[in-house]
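Project standup — Tuesday

K.O.: blocked on the structure for the chain from last sprint. Re-posting the sequence here as requested.
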Amino acid sequence: MIKRHIIFIYFVIQSECENTVMKIIRAEHLGMCFGVKDAIALAVETAKREPLTILGDLVHNETVLAELRAQGIRFEQNPTTVETQMVMITAHGASELVMNEARERGLNVLEATCPLVHAAHRSLKRLVAEGFHPVIIGKRNHVEVRGMTEDLDEFDVVLDEADVANLRERKQFGIISQTTQPIEKVRRLVELIRRRFPNSEVRFIDTVCQPTKQRQSAAVELAQKCDAVIVIGGAHSNNTHELVKTCSQFCMHVHHVQTADDLREEWFHADDTVGITAGTSTPDAVIEAVEQKLSVFSIRTDKPINTKEEILCKHG
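H.V.: unblocked you, prediction finished:
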């Protein structure tokens, strides 16, 4: 007699009668950098002593700006409209041209410029002083890049291959970068310039800041092991947008949010691994609120639970 033994082996990820809790993980490096924290602290402490106007957006994060406005801090884009005696330069820095204009109006200028942005300014000045034609890798209209270039008589700003193709030949090129550009993109563009002008001397000074490098590297590692990634940061934050681009290279589902209110439950599945990263001007409280809302999504989801079943039949 042949006995048939049918062995059912079920691999069940989780029972349908239970709630599936999706896995939520943070990037190793994310959120506010020291430059932003110091700038905010300086603004708050100064505003306690006297009326303060910040020239431009202190950081590119609306949550932070709203909190500063609530403390009586004003924001203006031009020194000519400032009505307080004290005016603060943002963490992104400013040109001597702009700061001198403010001083000529009798204003007291307080700098909250990130030290790493200051370092980029010094590197650029050194290259120009040594006879190099200045090239800045970054966004032409970004406040940080304007601060670097407004004091220069001649310069080029490049952000992609087309910009490099439009450069004209120079005897010497001196290259720096906006501090929040991805370092791999910066190196690629530097190499393109070197290849396009083999007879020119090309000197590159790496001015991409360490917090940006850390967050970019951590974003790559995060995105490679996630089903979805949430990037938290201001709508106008360059380093946040760059994090979105980086994560999108390794994960199909990447969502940029400014606050927890922007999250949508339909973005996720019950068994997803969801990663969180954040730009360098994103407050810890905003990151925590996003993580908390994701946790709520994970425990109340009524989406179908993935189940795998394998049936093995043996004859003997």
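K.O.: great, moving the ticket to review. Confidence is low (pLDDT under 50) at residues 1-18, 301-316. The two ends are 9 Å apart (CA to CA).
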